[in-house]
Amino acid sequence: LSHMKAKSIKGKSTEEIKKALEKATSDGFKPTLAFVFISIKQDIDAVCTFLNEQNIQIFGATTGGEFIDGVISAGTIAILLVDLDPSNFMILLGDYHDKDPESVAKEMAGKAKEQFKNPSFIISNSFELANSNVMGEPIVRAIETVCGKNTIIWGGNAGDDFIFKETVVFTNHQSTKRGILLLVLYGDKITMKGLAASGQKAVGTEKIITKAVGDWVYEIENQPAAEMVLKFLGLDLTPEEAETFNPNDHNVVFSVSRDKGDTVLRSAGVFDWKNKSIFILGGIKEGDKVRLTLPPDFEVVDEVSKDADRIHKEELSEADALLMFSCIGRLGQFGPLMGEEIEGVRQVFNVPMAGFFTYGEFGRTKNGNNEFHNNTCCWVALKEK
Fold first, then answer.
1. If you average pLDDT over residues 249-269, what whole number do you get?
2. 271: which DSSP letter?
3. What CA–CA distance (Å, rounded) separates 181 from 158?
4. CA dihedral in degrees (165, 294, 154, 108; nearest 10)?
């Protein structure tokens, strides 16, 4: 049995994608599955109709920028095509706009488990950012309650070109702005190895979050959270300056300890000066131990590809295809360097790949658990057994 083939294509329009697909399939390559990472400005319906005519199943998400190599595009379409045996995968899309997202995720995981006794997942969620309804950790835990903690889960949430309003996930005949999209893979037939890597260095002593309500942190070590962070940044703001303070301009990222494995990153969303609290993207709770991190530098990019190299040598000597889900926050911090990070990982495995800039990533930390991440690069290599 030959293992799966993969090819990646990209284009600035549906027409360009049609031409690229014709070229990719001219040698007899017959893809069964397409990972479609597409700008919200593109014609999603037209792309889906076209792929559907070719009998290609679609795992689709809107992006904050997309790529098939180290060249980062925005406003375009990037697609990874694979000819995976259709009996070894299925695609599920659950709409949660009038339901509890966690119960939708559990129901979907149940379907996956009925189909494959050990399912692996690639996930993307769409959501409305206006209500700060980022779909993260609870979805991971919901899948784990059905499939177990050792279940493989990788992916990234859909984006919308930095508009931060709402995002879309889609398959051949259905798209939704409030959805959970799962590609379910048959674990016995498909190996998935990857890494959630940030390379961001935590500094200072570990501090305990002593008061948090929902995703708002009020106190760290019984001190007002916002004041403490400003002190760390060495900023002495007037009340007027404080009102317009944007944590994104200062890369305010917490490193949160876990009982095993690497730490997990959580970005600060907004500060509320009335009660000196900080809104944390991706979830945090009282009792969590945190450290602040330094802004990333050149070494980070090297570290991400060195880690990929280690996994390539120790765990997966060859792959058929590669997917990358990298945080939109990294794009903001690294700019052009991001291309080197992407290319660095791709060159390690030297296989076709596609990826996009996400609004939150899913993946397992080194020696750790499945997690929802911020500011992290999650990549996963696929190999058909």
1. 88
2. E
3. 10
4. -50
**Beta-sheet strand order (sheet of 377-384):** 66-67, 353-358, 321-327, 377-384, 190-197
Which range is least confidently modeled, 19-28, 74-83, 214-223, 327-336?
Answer: 327-336
| Main-chain phi, psi angles of 330, to 5 degrees | -65, -40
Class of residue 69 by CB neighbours under 10 A (exposed 0-12, middle 13-18, buried 19+): middle
The pLDDT tens digits for 197-220 are 888 888 889 999 999 998 899 999
> Contact at 8 Å (CB) between 35 and 62?
no
Cα separations in angstroms, 43 against 67, 75, 129, 215, 284:
18, 11, 22, 35, 37
pTM over the 0.90 mark: yes
Give whole-number Cα distances, 69 to 324, 348, 382, in Å. Answer: 10, 13, 17
Residues in the chain: 385
Residue 107: φ, ψ to 5°: -60, -45
For residue 14, which phi and psi values (nearest 5 degrees)?
A: -60, -40
> 3-class SS at 157?
coil
Label residue 299 exposed, middle or buried (CB < 10 Å: 0-12, 13-18, 19+). exposed
Distance CA 370, CA 196 (A): 9
